[in-house]
């Protein structure tokens, strides 16, 4: 029998972890790698049947790669705490792991924003490689936008993985600060030139790209909010680099 492991990295995910683990009940093994939650994440994970390990934060890529290494199943599903495997996806994954032709599988990810499914703004279908044969792939060590690098062919699963991207606007301010910080660090390390007007100009470009070119306007007010969030994230990413270089220079 082919065994399937699921791995999740966490930090303060008490709001999400129980439902996430319950959606993974079809897996033979569920592993949570926590980096120091101060809430009930660890207790909830254990009470819902997960094996829980601790590793201080290493960055998204390194953390997820470490979680992969803990799995013992022949196949490993890497999933975030705010994602869910539906029954249809569980069936599709259970069938896919008996495929001997591929080393990994990609699947579309369907995101929700304030409870609404979003199929514009560049959010859909957002194909991600999340199912990999153990030993056939590993996450790169990128601090942001990490991906599984696969040694072998990649098949396709058509059933979407659900992603509860934003449940309320309080999450947005936290995400903007966190992701703009990571993006700024990456930009600063690259040595890219950043001027005072880089922030507002790129922010305007991000808004127009998501709201107009990627048809965010078709999702109404939520499409507008998504484009504004992208603009704010872009603005702060550039301005953090500019202000820090100005201070240090």
Instruction: Decide which structural class fits the backbone.
Output: alpha/beta
Output the helix-strand order.
EHEHEHEEHEEEEEEEEHHH
* Most strands sheet: 7 strands, mixed
Overall shape: it is globular
Task: List strands and helices in order, with pairings.
Blueprint: E1 4-10, H1 17-23, E2 29-34, H2 41-47, E3 51-54, H3 60-70, E4 75-78, E5 83-84, H4 87-96, E6 104-107, E7 109-113, E8 116-118, E9 128-133, E10 137-139, E11 148-150, E12 154-156, E13 161-166, H5 169-190, H6 198-213, H7 220-248
Parallel strand pairs: 1-2, 1-4, 2-3, 6-12, 7-13
Antiparallel strand pairs: 4-9, 5-13, 6-9, 7-8, 10-11
Helix pairs in contact: 5-7, 6-7
Features:
249 residues; alpha/beta; four-stranded mixed beta sheet; 7 helices
Q: Can you walk through the features of this model?
A:
The structure is a single chain. The protein has helices at residues 17-23, 41-47, 60-70, 87-96, 169-190, 198-213, 220-248, and strands at 4-10, 29-34, 51-54, 75-78, 83-84, 104-107, 109-113, 116-118, 128-133, 137-139, 148-150, 154-156, 161-166. The chain is built from 7 helices and 13 strands. It is of the alpha/beta class. Helix content is 41%, strand content 22%. The strands form 3 sheets. A 7-stranded mixed β-sheet has the order 3-2-1-4-9-6-12, with helices on both faces. The chain has a 4-stranded mixed β-sheet with strand order 5-13-7-8. The chain has a two-stranded antiparallel ribbon with strand order 10-11. α6 (198-213) runs antiparallel to α7 (220-248).
């Amino acid at each position: 029998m082919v065994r399937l492991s699921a791995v999740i990295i966490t930090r303060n995910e008490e709001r999400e972890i129980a439902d996430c683990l319950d959606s993974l009940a079809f897996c033979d093994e569920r592993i949570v790698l926590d980096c120091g939650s101060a809430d009930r994440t660890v207790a909830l994970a254990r009470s819902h049947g997960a094996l829980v390990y601790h590793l201080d934060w290493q960055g998204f890529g390194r953390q997820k790669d470490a979680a992969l290494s803990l799995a013992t199943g022949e196949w490993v599903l890497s999933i975030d705490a705010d994602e869910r495997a539906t029954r249809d996806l569980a069936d599709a994954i259970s069938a896919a792991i008996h495929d001997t032709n591929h080393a990994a599988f990609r699947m579309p990810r369907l995101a929700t924003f304030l409870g609404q499914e979003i199929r514009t703004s560049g959010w859909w279908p957002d194909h991600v490689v999340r199912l990999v044969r153990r030993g056939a792939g590993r996450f790169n060590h990128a601090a942001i936008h990490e991906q599984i690098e696969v040694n072998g062919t990649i098949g396709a699963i058509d059933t979407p993985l659900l992603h509860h991207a934003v449940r309320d606007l309080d999450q947005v301010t936290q995400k903007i600060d966190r992701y703009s910080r990571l993006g700024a660090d990456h930009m600063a390390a690259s040595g890219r030139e950043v001027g005072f007007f880089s922030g507002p100009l790129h922010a305007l470009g991000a808004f127009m790209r998501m709201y107009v070119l990627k048809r965010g306007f078709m999702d109404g007010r939520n499409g507008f909010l998504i484009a504004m969030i992208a603009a704010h994230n872009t603005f702060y990413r550039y301005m953090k680099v500019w202000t820090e270089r100005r201070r240090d220079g």
